[in-house]
Amino acid sequence: MDYKAYALMAILLASVASVALVGAAYAQTATLTVKTGKSSYASGDDITVTGNLNATAINQPLLIQVKGPHNIDVIDQFPANPDGSYSYKFRAGGLMNSDGSGTYTVIVSYKGTTTNQATFQYTASVGTPGGWSTFTIKVGNDSYPVQYKITGGTVQNMVPSTATSDLTITINSTAAGNLLIRLPRNVIDARAGSDLRSGADENFTLFADDVPSDTWDQTEQTADRRTLSIDFDQGTQSIDIVGTWAIPEFGAIAAIILAIAIVGIIVATTRYGKFNFAPRL
């Protein structure tokens, strides 16, 4: 009997068994917990999602999705801490207001296999049918109605500018809130065409009190209008929506009169020399 062969076989089997045990230990399914800071929220609230990832090695980011009654309203990636704990904060509003009130589900996953979820109730203050207010922009003899909904403040004024291709909205914000606004394409638009008024749609650029803002979403896009949902902080005074084209602040007739006046001044200055504003003696 070849005892050496048996001994080698025993050592080999022991080695295979130990590798299998180690592999099984590392292959243990990771676990994940998910919870929200509160059970219910309203538009403008900050929602904090926390939990803990228990895994042998954390080498990929977590994926978070927030599903409303009809759509996925938030999707993002973020890292967990080295100890497996994590925290993710986002503001209620934006697409959630268009999705409407109801039960929302927060789903957090790791590597696509480890998943857990939590739910909360959301009350949408805007984005529900009806209740639209209208601000009428007057340009000469023409009127341009702009529909909007706002929480956390009131709309004071809307002024378009051809020179800067933007629409400045003045608001009085008494709390953090949301502005849902339907932008008629004949008032302002953002296009990729050479004439800046045709071609594929491009993203608007937004500023809150002259500071670039990314807390907004486009919730609707039709042939006649584009709808934006814009979150703002308490104390915000102005929101600038910048596109590639906007209607003039003054009507065509006013612009013609202004041009004639400027030409008249140039002709008079050329013909008679500079004006003399000194008082007569």
Characterise the protein shown here:
- There is one protein chain.
- The protein is α+β, with helices and mostly antiparallel strands and 281 residues long.
- It has helices at residues 3-26, 95-99, 252-272, and strands at 31-32, 35-36, 40-42, 46-54, 62-67, 72-78, 85-91, 102-110, 114-123, 133-139, 142-161, 166-184, 188-189, 205-208, 211-213, 216-221, 225-232, 238-242, 245-246.
- It has two domains: 31-123, Macroglobulin (MG2) domain (Immunoglobulin-like, Sandwich); 133-251, no CATH class.
- Helix content is 18%, strand content 47%.
- Strands 10, 11, 12, 14, 15, 16, 17 and 18 form an eight-stranded antiparallel beta sheet that branches. The chain has a five-stranded mixed beta sheet with strand order 3-9-8-5-6. Strands 1, 2, 4 and 7 form a four-stranded antiparallel beta sheet that branches.
- Residues 19-27, 126-130 and 250-255 have low confidence and may be disordered.
Task: Please name the defining characteristics of this protein.
281 residues; alpha+beta; Immunoglobulin-like; 2 domains; eight-stranded antiparallel β-sheet; five-stranded mixed β-sheet; 19 strands; 18% helix
What's the topology here?
Elements: H1 3-26, E1 31-32, E2 35-36, E3 40-42, E4 46-54, E5 62-67, E6 72-78, E7 85-91, H2 95-99, E8 102-110, E9 114-123, E10 133-139, E11 142-161, E12 166-184, E13 188-189, E14 205-208, E15 211-213, E16 216-221, E17 225-232, E18 238-242, E19 245-246, H3 252-272
Parallel strand pairs: 3-9
Antiparallel strand pairs: 1-4, 2-4, 4-7, 5-6, 5-8, 8-9, 10-11, 11-12, 12-17, 12-18, 13-19, 14-15, 14-18, 16-17
